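Practice problem 4.
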């Protein structure tokens, strides 16, 4: 997984992670402990992508899931991201989460936004200029949300 994570964090276009993180730091950050979950998408013995998923907040926020996904550059556009995101939704449903919240989707990340919208996520709001994109300058960070509850249970 490290080459994929390293490539994406050093690029600094899609995640607000430390671009200088070491492999050790990346392991601690990405490999969340059970009951949270980490998966890979693989073809033969090659890892094409990875996702992690967990409760978004502790205590009173722990009924909402969150997670992240990363696909190797040369494996994109072939359904790997969709498979990882669909798996995350299945995991969240199966574990009784009320919703999935992505906390910081970069507003210029059209691939991720199209993927999430196609799976039913909507944007709750955007923190303006909250992400310092190395090419495009300051761009927004979206909170994206997928409710998993039956409509009658959704309040507030
Ligand atoms: C976002 C990301 C995970 C998508 O993975 P992927 O394997 O390329 O996605 P898929 O091939 O499964 O495509 C799924 C959908 O994503 C959208 N999509 C993918 N690439 C796209 C692109 N270049 N432009 C616009 N939409 C795109 C489409 O809606 C596509 O739908 P389709 O299945 O009808 O074609 C991948 O681009 C990635 O790892 N990016 C860097 C890290 C990242 O941004 N992670 C998410 C942070 S919020």
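Answer key:
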């Amino acid at each position: 997984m490290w080459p994929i994570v390293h490539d994406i964090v050093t690029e600094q276009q899609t995640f607000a992670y430390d671009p200088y993180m070491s492999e050790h730091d990346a392991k601690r950050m990405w490999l969340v402990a059970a009951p949270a979950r980490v998966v890979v998408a693989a073809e033969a013995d090659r890892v094409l992508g990875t996702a992690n998923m967990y409760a978004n907040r502790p205590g009173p926020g722990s009924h909402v899931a969150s997670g992240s996904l990363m696909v190797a550059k040369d494996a994109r556009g072939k359904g790997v991201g969709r498979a990882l995101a669909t798996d995350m939704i299945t995991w969240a449903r199966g574990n009784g989460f009320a919703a999935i919240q992505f906390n910081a989707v970069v507003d210029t990340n059209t691939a991720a936004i199209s993927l999430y919208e196609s799976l039913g996520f909507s944007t709750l709001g955007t923190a303006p200029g909250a992400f310092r994109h190395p090419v495009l300058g300051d761009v927004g960070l979206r909170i994206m949300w997928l409710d998993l509850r039956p409509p009658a249970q959704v309040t507030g």
